[in-house]
Write a structure and sequence with these properties.
Helices cover 64% and strands 0% of the residues. By secondary structure, it is an all-alpha fold.
């Protein structure tokens, strides 16, 4: 197991503690049914996508803070890079927020009723405004 994978588990545990076992059973069911992360077209893909987006983002963030270099990895359909861009504008050539969000602000939106990228986008906009900026980032990554 790599460091990033171990830290992804920490991120998943934080998400589980917030959304509970019903949400997580749908998530696990998706992975068992479709093998690994499947793709964005399958039933309950949004639950898996939001969970993996958070897991990959937080795992990479924690590893990067602890060790030199960058430890973000992967280029999967669920696009953890959305969260990276929303919090740090790390990819300067992409759409940016004038005032990035915090990890806590995003985590506060990861409730059990947020079951897709579009629901996460809408919750972020509902709580923090900046509809055009947030929508542009999600749209850039295909959501």
């Amino acid at each position: 197991m790599t460091l990033s994978q171990a830290l992804n588990i920490v991120a998943h545990a934080s998400h589980f503690s917030k959304v509970g076992s019903w949400y997580w059973s749908q998530y696990i069911n998706y992975i068992i049914t479709y093998g690994s992360y499947g793709d964005a077209t399958k039933k309950n893909a949004g639950i898996c996508g939001v969970g993996e987006m958070w897991g990959y983002y937080v795992g990479g963030l924690l590893a990067t803070r602890q060790y030199e270099g960058t430890h973000f990895r992967g280029d999967d359909w669920f696009e953890y890079r959305i969260l990276r861009q929303l919090t740090s504008n790390s990819q300067t050539w992409l759409p940016r927020l004038t005032n990035p969000l915090t990890e806590k602000q995003i985590f506060d939106c990861l409730t059990s009723d947020v079951r897709s990228h579009s629901q996460l986008r809408n919750r972020l906009i509902q709580r923090y405004g900046r509809q055009q900026e947030i929508t542009t980032i999600f749209t850039h990554f295909g959501f």
